[in-house]
Amino acid sequence: MSFLHADEDEQQSDDHDSTLGDNQSSLTTSLTPSVFDFRYENGRRYHAFSEKKYPVPNDEIEKDRLDLQHHAFQLTLDGKLYRAPIRDDIQHVLDVGTGTGIWAIEFSDLHPSAQVIGTDLSPIQPEVVPPNCSFLIDDCEEEWLFHHSFDFIHTRAMVAAIKDWPQFFGQAYDNLLPGGFLELQEISFPGMCMDTSLTPSTSPFLRWSALFIEAAAQIGVDATAPLRFGHKLREVGFVDVKLKIYRWPVGQWAKGDKEKSLGKFAHEDLMDWLSSGSLGLFTKVLGWSRERMELFLSEVRKEFKEHKERHFYGHV
Fold first, then answer.
1. Pairing label, strands 176-185, 150-156
2. Helix (H) or strand (E) holding 266
3. For residue 144, how far is the Cα from the chain centroid?
């Protein structure tokens, strides 16, 4: 799991603004009733727009998990929403993969000067939001069509959603104003353990992590990609690329009040993610039955409950 920040301070090409124009297609998908025709599988609800693009549910269970994960990221940053040195009177902000919209809403309250747009495949954001915050149903892997460029583009926990990171970085670069910032708060596999003698053959959690990477790769998702973002960001033109890696302990084994709180959040997040993140990949891609998957996940949960001496963690 990795956290990255990149900023861009070079002038963009003269033809950049021509890609913005007045095209409304990317800005009107939220008005289409079909985006609410959710798909249901194995008792979970999934997005309808760009159907099956993202193999993770969007139901109430997942919404609660995303909000909990938000607090974990915020705790990691000592209560902050971002690390980029943006100015206080920032004007245009884009939150890609906004999920429940919690980051965009809190950013809007913190920066009333900003017009904040949150995009996502799922219309699961609240209706009552700050006046400077809005949401669009959009696929970030398709062409970006906005009326203006942005001072700040933010995204978080999109490792299972984006297949072509170089394309994503290129579009972000093209849609940033000169001197703008891109910040990626990402999660990277595999899961880790302080006891390096444990392997996927002896630890259910480490086996689950390896299987997740394997299944994701079969649909074109590289779950290990975030740790290698730096080179790809520079290739598309970003400068002053900064990388900061944090460690999330899973469980309350780490020392210190902050680490213990973070470990509690990370553990709860993982327990919900085991089902949300595995259901589509293990049954659809690996060909497992629902029963086999649930039995295996119970072994993973049991490991955390009965082997507290196994100090698992992830990179964020």
1. parallel
2. helix 257-280
3. 18
Give pLDDT tens digits for 72-99.
999 999 999 999 999 989 999 999 999 9
Mapped onto helix, strand or coil, the DSSP state of residue 271 is helix
Rounded CA gap, 276 and 58, in Å? 9
HEC states along 29-87?
HHHCHHHHCCEEECCEEECCCCCCCCCCCCCHHHHHHHHHHHHHHHHHCCCCCCCCCCC
Q: Which is nearest to 130 in space by CA: 167, 105, 151? A: 105
**191 vs 188, 215, 224, 244, 253, CA distance in Å?**
8, 15, 10, 18, 16
Cα distance between residue 210 and residue 307, in whole Å? 19
My answer on whether omega of the bond before 131 falls inside 30° of 0, hence cis, is no
Euclidean distance between CA atoms 96 and 103, whole angstroms:
10
Sole residue written with tokens 């993973």: 300
pLDDT tens per residue across span 113-170: 999 999 999 899 999 999 999 999 999 999 998 989 999 999 999 999 999 999 999 9
Range of the domain at 136: 3-315
Residue 207 belongs to domain with CATH number: 3.40.50.150
The structural domain count of the chain equals 1
CB 206, CB 200: distance < 8 Å: yes
Query: Rounded to whole angstroms, what are the CA distances from 193 to 124, 130, 147, 263?
Result: 35, 42, 46, 14
Q: Structure tokens of 35?
A: 């985006």
